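Try it yourself: sequence plus nicotinamide-adenine-dinucleotide, in.
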Amino acid sequence: MVSANNLIAGKWTVGSQGERSVVSPYDGKQIGTYSVPSLEQINTAIRSASEAQKAWGRLPIKERSKVLFNFRNILLRDIDKISKIKGAECGKVFDEAKAGLMKGIEVLEYALSIQNLDTGGKTEVSRGVSCEYRREALGVVANITPFNFPAMVPMWTIPIAIALGNSYVWKPSDKTPLTSFFIAEALKEAGLPDGVFTVLHGGHETVNAIIDHPAVKAIGFVGSTKIAKLVYQRGTQLGKRVLALGGAKNHIVLLPDANLEISGVGISDSFTGCAGQRCMAASVLLAVGDTNGHIEQIVKRASSLELGKQMGAIITKEQIQFLNNAIAAAEKAGAKVILDGRKAKAPPGMEGGNWIGPTILDNVQPNSEASKVELFGPVLSIIRCKDISQAMSIANSSEYGNACSVFTSNGGLAERVAREAQAGMVGVNVGVPVPREPFSFGGTMESKFGHGDITGEQSLNFWSNYKKVTVKWEMQSDSNWMS
Ligand code: NAD
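Structure, out:
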């Protein structure tokens, strides 16, 4: 049992709004608790974050980076322990939980390179006058994260925001609050001063109190589109910078010339990985022309997955019900269920958990729920298309813009999809086109509110201010600095 309390001014503090239990999607058994802070406790936490930031922000980046380097080594040392608890609370199988943390560590390694790569710039702009860029911390920044990546999504922002000299307030998902304890402990052990890192639990009341606090200068959010919009509106109305990543409905264009094995593995793994609970999962397969052989490969691989070992569980029973209803509605609307995950059995001993197997729906209609609504489960909707133009028009009619991939052996057609897709992240023969550092992560349209991206190079300007300093030390009076 893990107790996840609130990290306030460097001390684990029981939230006075009460304790809640955390159950594992694997078997429905309780694995821990978390406690929710009062408004007073939240305000104390943010005041302390603001105080701590003053000294932290004044340290040279090389000194801040030393702490983050320790943090990296501690995470690598404890990776199995953290991955286990993370998998248990969000339903991921161990290898997936570990891979998510490894991706977070990759962002941390990028943050460690900021000290060497982001050296600003200085130019003599006029006789005896120079202009210089200086990157400065914002102060206190906050981040609100979803259930599906309890370590990776927070790690998209923690290392970069802290390396740049900010204090960081994290509100983990109330469905998966336990991992935060281990990440915070690793930062403490690494030598991060008290108050620079804060953890506050709870739901919308905690989020609203964080957004509204005047010391919080920037808010990152990752979660559903509905809540992303609320957070974006609330923060920007207060004049704060907000980057809010929302939901997704990702398309894969499958062309008849695609390599059978690469597309079979890539597409199957994309919609079944993390049991479909990731914002980059394939959701709609736009099958152009005769791709029956490819679809057979996808069905074969997906149907071979062993639940509990190769594919994890679904976060809640309500979500299982939602998926079952969506599959039934698709059937009613004329789709054919060619792989039916509703028949899958829970792994032995895990009957109390939330299980559904990979599901593939063929002949889905372009405007039906299964082709438009984010399902967030291991369900692939196949829409048959006569040509690539029709496929792109369906992909681009989505309100979301996270990911779009194409499987083909024709470079020209791949380039056409990359050019025409409205999604922010495009894959060519890659089913989950998550950019690796230093390339940034971020979608478009209803998948992202705000400017810039949440990781990589494009995130630096979000987590800092770029100051411009113009200096004249040559004391000649015959010209002004604009000359
Ligand atoms: P969610 O929107 O329900 O919750 C996200 C966070 O918001 C949690 O911390 C939650 O406690 C908080 N929250 C919930 N209700 C709130 C409210 N009314 N006001 C303020 N805060 C509130 O999302 P989820 O179910 O945890 O995660 C799944 C969703 O996240 C999916 O839609 C998925 O596509 C999306 N997601 C997107 C990305 C991306 O990069 N675009 C990455 C991961 C997940």
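One thing you can check immediately is this: Residues 144-149, 153, 171, 173-174, 203-204, 207, 222-224, 227, 230-231, 245-248, 279, 374, 376, 402, 443, 447 surround nicotinamide-adenine-dinucleotide (CB under 6 Å).
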